[in-house]
Amino acid sequence: MKTVKDLKWHKGIDVEELVDAFGGTGFQSIELNGASDIFVKMKKSNAKIFLAFTSNMVTSGLRGFFAQLINLGMADIIITTAGSIEEDIMKALGEKFEIASFFSDDVKLHERGENRIGNLVIRNESYMRFEDKMKGMLQQIYEKQKRISVSELIKEIGLMLDDNDSILHQAARKNVPIFCPAITDGAIGFHLFMFQQDHKDFIVDVVQDFSNAIFCTTHDEKKGLIALGGSISKHHAVLIGMMNGGFDYAVYMTTAHQTSGSMSGATTQEAKSWGKIKDDSDAATVIGDVTVMFPLAMMRALEKLTAQGIIKG
Amino acid sequence: MKTVKDLKWHKGIDVEELVDAFGGTGFQSIELNGASDIFVKMKKSNAKIFLAFTSNMVTSGLRGFFAQLINLGMADIIITTAGSIEEDIMKALGEKFEIASFFSDDVKLHERGENRIGNLVIRNESYMRFEDKMKGMLQQIYEKQKRISVSELIKEIGLMLDDNDSILHQAARKNVPIFCPAITDGAIGFHLFMFQQDHKDFIVDVVQDFSNAIFCTTHDEKKGLIALGGSISKHHAVLIGMMNGGFDYAVYMTTAHQTSGSMSGATTQEAKSWGKIKDDSDAATVIGDVTVMFPLAMMRALEKLTAQGIIKG
Amino acid sequence: MKTVKDLKWHKGIDVEELVDAFGGTGFQSIELNGASDIFVKMKKSNAKIFLAFTSNMVTSGLRGFFAQLINLGMADIIITTAGSIEEDIMKALGEKFEIASFFSDDVKLHERGENRIGNLVIRNESYMRFEDKMKGMLQQIYEKQKRISVSELIKEIGLMLDDNDSILHQAARKNVPIFCPAITDGAIGFHLFMFQQDHKDFIVDVVQDFSNAIFCTTHDEKKGLIALGGSISKHHAVLIGMMNGGFDYAVYMTTAHQTSGSMSGATTQEAKSWGKIKDDSDAATVIGDVTVMFPLAMMRALEKLTAQGIIKG
Amino acid sequence: MKTVKDLKWHKGIDVEELVDAFGGTGFQSIELNGASDIFVKMKKSNAKIFLAFTSNMVTSGLRGFFAQLINLGMADIIITTAGSIEEDIMKALGEKFEIASFFSDDVKLHERGENRIGNLVIRNESYMRFEDKMKGMLQQIYEKQKRISVSELIKEIGLMLDDNDSILHQAARKNVPIFCPAITDGAIGFHLFMFQQDHKDFIVDVVQDFSNAIFCTTHDEKKGLIALGGSISKHHAVLIGMMNGGFDYAVYMTTAHQTSGSMSGATTQEAKSWGKIKDDSDAATVIGDVTVMFPLAMMRALEKLTAQGIIKG
Known about the structure:
The structure is a homotetramer. Chain A folds into two domains: 1-47 and 221-313, Deoxyhypusine synthase (Deoxyhypusine Synthase), CATH 3.40.910.10; 70-219, Deoxyhypusine Synthase (3-Layer(aba) Sandwich), CATH 3.40.910. The first copy, chain A, is built from 14 helices and eleven strands. The first copy, chain A, has helices spanning 15-22, 28-44, 55-59, 62-72, 82-92, 106-111, 124-144, 150-160, 167-173, 187-198, 206-214, 231-243, 268-274, 290-307, and strands spanning 48-52, 77-79, 98-99, 114-117, 120-123, 147-149, 178-179, 203-205, 223-228, 247-254, 277-287. Chain A has a six-stranded parallel β-sheet, with helices on both faces. Chain A is globular. Chain A starts with 14 loop residues before the first helix and ends in a 6-residue tail after the last helix. The interface between C and D is large, with 76 and 76 residues.
């Protein structure tokens, strides 16, 4: 029987030691420690790792960490929303997002052309820069291919970016597909629409991308899921997994609770009723802000995997 | 200055009286009362009303209430996710969803072919029934139109259903467009994919639907938003509004908080920085489970609007 | 098997009908409907009803509703915090609490002598009025009794108040004890301290009150618990129940979740491990703001109980 | 203007580096970084540091960390609830708390005499061991002093314990007062009552302890507040601070939100309207599970303070 241990600080304590200690601390620290163990297991078992996240995480500095994880081989399939695509491109173009406050004066921000996401801000200029770049990129892609699935479109964009901290760039480089089931839900939708106005035969094929998604893995392969936040990125990931026999490993990290019946708050337990994750899977649901919880759990896993020679740190 | 009033029960108290009293009670009851006032104002000002919701609300009994609201003229544009489309169709076919518990044994449910969403359950049979129906409907739609936008597709389906409690049916009947920016994110995605396998020229045009969405209203029109829950339904609605100069009225109802920077928890205040809602708009954010909060706020509004002869009860 | 029913509005719908319909709606509306049923059962079985609440509910208009419930025989034992005692007295003296906003400018409020609790405000004047009254009341109580338990002290105060909407007054009138395990945690603590400075033999005996609490019911009696919010009011109520064999009926209403291991978020399920509520008890945990959830669930119960002649409406 | 930075892992990353990086990550990671800065500032300014926490944190492994903080001079005044006192004593007697699951079978736990707090469990034996010890300790204390304030009582107990990881022991050793405004709200209440049955002149003087609390600091002293979780421990701390002119530094860490008007969710912003914290104070509200958030923020502060020679690591 595992028991609670008194947590202690010592000078120079590193992340691995602290998250190790969380295994005996209590409440969400224990769940976080368990999630970290599952990250290690899914990699060691050679599972295909699905990483699903919402766009606010790309607004945040997790964006560079996600790119690093792709590079390290810790993410084989990405599922996200349109905002993630846009903001990763903006950052790859050198745009900086600013740190503001949850209690900003939003009317003043509006006057200054600053768009708030929690305690962060994206300036209108970043959207304009993105628009300029998109026009050129769409023209180039169209010249190669007139009917294109979403993940192919995103890969083409990724190849045109030149930034090692870019999710799109690293994914394209590593042949990691990025699925985005609602590609038009953002400024990018507007740019696609404008382009299609002048190029009626330009088709973004979402139905074709569904088959890309369900055939990106198989029933036989071991599969692991890391679902950060909720929304359709989480839902689409579990859907793909379910259609391939369910996940063997799953970690959900979210601030939402199951009590309203939302997908955002759905637990790994609930997922078993659907066959989204296997009955005997290793699964953990961690409640908390992903910007804190995920780096802790994943960085400890990276330390363990490096020590075992499984990934190169 | 408004002051707190002692709340009292009397025999036979009706919903309108109770929600009136909430205006002097405190905390979320006051916000709910304010949301109800905004519902009244948006209708009285002839605003175009956007109703955005997530699929778990269609799993719940709110589905019939949404259909009723469309019928009463309280929703001019619908934005939702793929699950809503599927489940509305299942229910229109006579399928019943069961009431279970948040603490169900999910492995047992899985064995019985019961898929849990919070304290509700959808049986595998309902998905099979839906599959059978979809095949026939897609064939009929394809014969009319090979390249179709999402909202047109949904309207065609709505016209084929025969259920007054169906959102799709009432919307089709009333010419209320239903936008679904991630139409493939569900079982329906699989059926569309299967159909496209045999009909390569069948195209679901999401980019075309983006233009349908942004041209469904104008800068000049007054616009009101009712965003229930989070996810891309909420995001897509605010995006359309922003591209048309922002909403004049807005009510967000959600269990999510702004502290994680997610769209689900984004407040009407934050929306002002983007121009998603106007600086001087009437806006309220109500925190709580939509299955309770929304009927209360909206039913009181319906009573007021009926009494004033604006809608017919 | 119970199934989900489409929710519908009709003109003049009353609270009882709506909460009846919630039984087939889904998510928290179902839990709320279940809580309402338990309120009916606990009264019909003649259970001794414990009502525990935090002071913010007395800041709100629920204060008058609690007083009404005591008068109707729906609360036999009250457990609360010091703020409730203070604010009930202020209101009994005619003080009005104001309605502000969650986004008030707190520095300006401070300058104006307005103290914010969520979207409500208590002015400094109300605290001064309370102070004046307390001095006189403590003197009178001291003259009768120098060593006094907390619940006796509160009863003496209740008898001196003249307001039918006062919790303390109705409780005193009806011989309903009010337990307040942290009586000094508020302005009242300061007034008791000032009084004791001049009357060293004045003793507020909290240990004696513990025995009053545990002997206010028995193992043999049926016992029902209504715990609104968290904190020590909830904890003290379950402690008393546990020491008397556990509750037969229990409803928890709270916005807190069990995931942090706090008492506020502890569920009725967890309570069974302690014997705080019986293994086979009728129990429900409802997640949501008490100012909305509680009136709905309780008013429906009052309608049912009145119809059955069990209480007089 | 501060901007978002891409977060990166490197082999051997330590806690200080990670929490430094959080300052540019986003959402709660930024707030956590800010809280850590405030911890450094309050110590460097020689502020009197109030540490308030709820009992579930003593159930967890934070208990040893709190004891360490007292020893390091990072906590000058403690405010907590009765459960903390009990459980610190149990652990000092060698009792081990077990790690279970949030989804335990609570009826089975009850049969086994295991009492659940989130994903932790306290066995009945630990309560029995505590009872035996309390009897002896109360007798010894009574022989010294018949009328005793709560903080004096707790100090006497602390002196009798022999465990460096004990909060009570370290506090007694370091002359750090522990205030517990609801001392009877727990098993300890029962033991005090039993003892008083046989010793009618034994008085636990809570009113006297209120004066100990308000005179433990002054208007002139700089004051810092660390309020972990909600409940009366948080409230009592802010009350004491307010009566001494308000805090200069304040960090709230909680999973609760301000939207229900509860003390648990009250923000540092709201506290300014009361003068609980000063208008120009350095303040941060961090949302998240304290078992993760607090060690991160505090351990980074300890590294900074050690490097500057202000505390000895």
